[in-house]
Amino acid sequence: VDFSLSPDQVLIRDSVARFGSTYAAASAVDPWPTFAEVGWLGLGAPAELDGFGGPIEISILVEQFGRHLVAEPYIPQVVLAGTILREAGRHHELEVLLSGAERFAVAYEEPRGRYDPAYVETSASKTAGGFVLSGEKVRVAGMKGATQVIVSGRDGDEPALYVVPLDNAGISRRDVLGVDGHAVASLCFNEVQVERSARISTDGTGLQLLELGLESANAAVCAEALGVMSAMLDMTVEYTKQRTQFNVAISSFQALQHRMAEMFIELEMVRSMVFLAAMALDSDTGSSVPRSVSAAKSYVAQAARFIGQNAIQLHGAIGITEEYELGHYFKRLTVLERIFGDKAYHLRRFSQLSKQGVN
Amino acid sequence: MDLKFSPSDDAFRAEVRSFVADNLPAGIREKVQLGYEIEKDDYATWHRILFERGWAAPNWPVSHGGTGWSATQRHIFEEELAYAWAPRLLNFALGRAGPLLMQFGSAEQQQQHLPRILSGEELWCQGYSEPGAGSDLAALATRADVRDGYYVVNGTKIWTSYAQWADWIFMLVRTSVHENRHDGISVLIVDMRSPGITVRPIDTIGHDCKLNEVHFSNVEVPLENRIGDEGQGWKYAMFLLQHERTSIGGGVATARKNLRQLRELVTATLVDDDRLDDRISEVEIALEALALTELRVLAALSTGNAPGPESSVLKIKRTELQQTIGEIALDVVGPYVDTDVESRYFDLRRTSIYGGSNEIQKNIIAKRILHL
Fold first, then answer.
1. pLDDT per residue over B330-369, tens digit each?
2. Which residue in the list B79, B80, B130, B244 is annotated as catalytic?
3. Which residues of B touch A350 (CB under 8 A)?
């Protein structure tokens, strides 16, 4: 066991941090081609497609995205969609994902499904040439620049996955800008015709593929949340040191010191949970992945509330202004703790897996 | 970064597991499993078994009879012992007096005591707290005045665990008075059979009656029983406290074991209850986080860094989780059914108090990590 970063990993961390420190969300220039060029879109992809690294490298990258509040759809488009395409063996789609030529969102949640990827009402009826998709998907993350969507639908008992160009006739979309500045959408599939080759899962593997994608995505969400929280704690510590009340720096007050110590403790636990999730994904012992990822996500979600809320509280009123950056971190954190399943969802999942004797 | 256990780590784990399975006496294992009191003889027996295998002091350097294990191996060892319901060896000799002597003791002191500590022939206790010096340890007032070639010790130590069994005590005494209270403190090692020492047991609200008050009345201690330099005791004491908080591995493994018992208790006592399941899962998850955090601290240590203030993080989280487990058990059984569960809950109050209260640990994190 060795927790130190390899030279390559240090390189990733430092180059992402460098990018992040000059990143501006409002910029007219789309950084995606740059991501493709420097290889960030290929993390976790097979070596024959010039991919490199894996879950640990991804967590290093997104942690820096979190620290610098890089509002790009890396997790939904590269981690979630990329994992699904990789596991499905769809090398053609992976190649265009890696080059940045096509960008994939993943549509799996439904209005009545509440985070559960197994809840699929969307139908996929077989036709002579392929399938017809009908149904509604909500909370489709990663819509910025997306050209295709991976969607779950039932063509029998089991959900299957289909890749569909977003400009396909019959898809209506309601775009929403999230509180975190990320582009999301609700998608209605109204008898959308797709070819047979659009189905990327073989019989009975659709849900499994989707879950694999979500495990990787959630591990990455934890890592990004770690970056966000570490930035928030640093800002809080610095702020209390320079903020003077009663003629002293408010950091000299024990009530505030203890609160920040508690935030630090939680942050260290979060860091360990990011390792735990990445470690489970990185090893070959597949059975522990769902349990470890749900453990990580539920812990991180809880810590996110504690660290986020207290960072605001210790800043006082300046913390709730739109002008000040802390609030932007808080908004992103508030999305991260719930996206792809919140604390309650993952805690329940963990309990059920434990009961089934999964370790 | 490599987060996997290596094949040789796995082989080591198997070796420890089979050794414990073959050598831990069934009677001792049962006592630990059922939460019964572990007798002095039980500790001595298990200590001797580990000593003969060369495993009594995983944290000691090889030169003094330690194992020379990596941080990962020590972690595995502690885990396996806990899983097998082995008692943790008494720690004041092996975990405190030993490192103190190795770090600051004279060659003669080391020769006299280290082999006997290693073999388990010599038990120790720690004389830190006093009636007027708890969290504010530097307020200690026990005096050691030089008279006729001896230190003459007068004062009272309190909350002294295992003083009733101890052969020796290492203690903080005031050898001179200065404006800075951290100056003038020295560490003495004292034979518990010395005339003038009285040990009075203190009954607690829990099971545990191993706390004592130790009174020193004109106790004569040879000058050569001072550790290190006169007046430097505060420095030595701080070194040891950090050691204590980093005495890693057993904490999480023990908590995991208690959690396993809790699950058994729930299965035996209650019908399905999702909310209770989730509460237990929350603790289980937090224990995973703590276990990895411990491993991270250990890994940093094994690359040559001294145990730092991050040991405070471990101490707080470990004790909080232990207490939470005790609390859930309390809620599971309800009153008047299982007094062991209640006693354990009472016993666990001490964990957030001893070794520097958790509030003191937060002060340490605030000052030394966050630089507030």
1. 988 889 888 888 988 998 999 999 888 999 999 999 999 9
2. B244
3. 281, 284-285
What three-state secondary structure class fits A27? coil
Q: Do A264 and B286 touch (CB under 8 A)?
A: no
Output the pTM of the full model.
Answer: 0.92
Q: Residue B10's CB: how many other CB atoms inside 10 A?
A: 12
As a whole number of angstroms, the distance between CA A135 and CA A120 comes to 9
More confident residue, B117 or B209: B117
Q: Among A68-82, A328-342, B106-120, B199-213, which is the least confidently predicted range?
A: B199-213
Q: How far apart are CA A32 and CA A145, in angstroms?
A: 9
Cα(A276)–Cα(B286) distance, integer angstroms: 12
Least Cα distance to B210 among B219, B218, B202 occurs for: B202
Q: Do B289 and A273 touch (CB under 8 A)?
A: yes
Torsion of CA B319, B323, B325, B331, to 10 degrees: -170
DSSP label at residue A128? S
- pLDDT tens digits, one per residue of A185-216: 999 999 999 999 999 998 889 999 999 999 99
Other CB atoms within 10 Å distance of the CB of residue A184 = 22
Judged by CB atoms closer than 8 Å, whether chains meet at A299 and B289 is answered as yes
Judge contact between B172 and B140, C-beta under 8 A: yes
Beta-carbon separation of B366 and A355 below 8 A: no
Of A3, A256, A265, the CB nearest to B313: A265
C-alpha span between B208 and B268 (Å, rounded): 26
List, for residues A280-290, the tens digit of each pLDDT value: 998 765 568 99
- B197 Cα distance to chain centroid: 24
Tell me the sheet residues that pair with B198.
Answer: B215
Dihedral sign of CA atoms B268, B273, B277, B280 in order: negative
Distance of alpha carbon A105 from alpha carbon B200, whole angstroms:
71
The ipTM is 0.93
Establish whether B122 is a catalytic residue. no
User: Which member of A9, A241, A261 has the closest CB to residue B365?
Assistant: A261
Tokens 């995505």: give the residue: A217
What percent of chain A lies above the pLDDT cut of 90? Answer: 91
Of A101, A170, A102, A166, the closest CA to residue A140 belongs to A166
**Widest CA span in chain A:** 79
Residues A140 and A339: their CA atoms lie apart, in Å, by 10
Average pLDDT, chain A: 95
